[in-house]
C-alpha cells in the first residue's frame, strides 16, 4: 500500500513539474522616477511605464525543450508593448535546432526592436567555430534582430538615449569589456546584456548601470540544501548566494532571469519560467 502511495506522489510531482515548465510568470521592475520606491514598497508600478525605456527581458529559450509557446510570448508583447526586447542567450543545443529557433524568435519579435547576445549553449552547439557562428548571426539578423557581441548600440525614446551593451559569453566566448564600452555615448544610462551573470565580477565598479542575464535558470529543479547549485554549478555568484532576481553587485543593478526553457528535461520545480518587464528612466 505504501509503495502505491509513494508511486502516486512521485507521479503527481512529475506531472506538476511538467506543468510548471509551461506556467510563465511575468515579473515587473521599475527604475523610472519614484519606481524604485514603489518596487520596494510592493506597490503597482504600471502607471509609470511611460516614464522611461520599457524593456522586455527574456533568456535561456532552449527551444528544443521549451514548454512555453512563442504565441504566449507574443501575447505578452502585445499586452505590454515594450520599447525594446532584450534576450540574453542559450537558444539552441544542436545545429539542427537553428530553424526552430529562428521561427520561434520571428513569431514574437516581428515589429519590435529586438537585441540579443549569445550564450554558452549556442556557442558550444556551433562548435565554437567562427564561420558557423557568423552564419547563425547572419540568419538571426535577417529577421531584423540585432546581435551584439562586444559592442554597443544606442536606442532612443522621447528624446532620451540609452546605451545597450552586448557582451560575449564568459564561459564559451571572449568577452571584451573595454571594446564594448568604447562604443558608449557618455552621460546616458549603460544597459548591459550578457548570458553568464558572473561577468559582473569582471566589470570595473560602476562602469555600467544595469545588467540583464540568465544562465542559472533560477535553479530549474529545486533540490534541498542548494544541491542543484552545489552539484551542477561552479559560478562564483552561486557561492555568494546570488541565484535569481534582482541584486546589486559592484554598483551594478543586475537582474538574473529564470529563463523560459529547460535543459536535460522539460520540467521545472519551484522556478517558474519568467518574462521580465523592466522600466529604466
Task: Please tell me about this protein's structure.
By secondary structure, the protein is an alpha/beta fold. It has a single domain, classed as Purple Acid Phosphatase, chain A, domain 2. Helices cover 30% and strands 22% of the residues. The chain contains 9 helices and 12 strands. It has helices at 2-20, 35-41, 70-80, 98-109, 120-125, 130-141, 177-182, 227-232, 236-239; strands at residues 25-31, 53-58, 84-88, 114-117, 146-147, 151-157, 160-166, 190-193, 210-213, 245-249, 252-256, 274-280. The strands form 2 sheets. Strands 1-12-2-3-4-5 form a 6-stranded mixed sheet. Strands 6-7-8-9-11-10 form a 6-stranded mixed sheet. β10 and β11 form a beta hairpin. α3 packs parallel to α4 (98-109). The longest helix is centred in the N-terminal third of the chain and has 19 residues, at 2-20. The protein is globular. The termini are far apart. The relative contact order is 0.20.
